[in-house]
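Subject: Sanity check before I submit

Could someone independently write out the structure tokens for this chain? I want to compare against mine line by line before I put it in a report. The sequence has 180 residues.
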Amino acid sequence: MAKYNNVLGVKSVYFGPAGDGVMGTELTEFSDIELGSLTIEGANSTVENISTEDQYNYLTVDVTVDPTTITVRFYGLSPEERVMLMGGKVGTVDDGEDEGNYMAPASKPSIYGSFKFVSKEINGKRAVFKMPYAKANARDQGTATKNGLPAVEVVFTANTPESAAGEKGNPYILGFEDVV
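---
Independent answer below. Compare away.
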């Protein structure tokens, strides 16, 4: 087993407003993460083989490219956290008995922001995975049972960030930092 530059578990997940083509700085921490729920799906291409006149040769070309995604499931989100990830609003005094409750939107909005997750430590290092401009697609999902909880499942999709000046950044950054 490699001793460095690995991703082991999840210490914390963050999401919030994106910067101007860069990673946002005011991110909210989400800490109640379902065990084993964070999955990474790297960018993948659908390819097509095009035959050539030579019966033994062909060209392979990318037809479509699926972007990198990270899926994670959160427990116990506050109404304000649900609004950040799913849209909608927190009920006010005008909403009567629903004051303080999460109120879902009539139609699902497109929500974009900066996403980051930090892994647990391995030999003094931990992974930091950042998406400066990610689309958050969240939904309630699960079964309420005596030994299980429904969760909010969110798929974060890496998009290419672009500043107001038209400078493009990287869809995601994976690095490793020393734990001090």
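---
OP: Matches mine. For the report I'm noting this point. The helical segments are 79-86.
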